[in-house]
Design brief:
The chain is of the alpha+beta class. The protein has a domain of 92 residues: Immunoglobulin-like (Sandwich), CATH 2.60.40. Helices cover 33% and strands 39% of the residues. A hairpin with a 5-residue loop joins β3 and β4.
Amino acid sequence: MTKALLFTCCLAVLSLIQSCSQGEAYSSHASYTTPLEQPKTAEELRAELLAQEQSDPATYLGVAGTSRRNFINQLVLEGDIANAATLANFKDPVLSVTWYSKTQTELGIKEYPIYELVRAQGTTHFKLKTEEPSYVATVALGIAAATVVE
């Protein structure tokens, strides 16, 4: 009699486990029956990328350059502005120049617009002659802003 009771209990436990596992399978299966989102077309992806790049030009524009004194003691700034954006073109980037003394004390910041077009994945050369005092030892260059080309 105890063997029959043990067998019945085991059978009941197995059927309970089976019914629970079918319920979980059904609920997990139900999550896969929802319609999938349509993949975006190449044109939609390009439009999103272009909008992202146009939203913050300073992120995609970088500058590298040098400074030197010419014969009439003007500080000459010369370098390249590079556009890392894939699709966005920018015009009239504003060059931000920070002046430093020999002791690396910041003397001031001045902005110069560069009236050029910087194409996507391209570079533009610039050369500026400034009238800064002779105690300016070094400069730091950056891009403050630019205008998006539509």
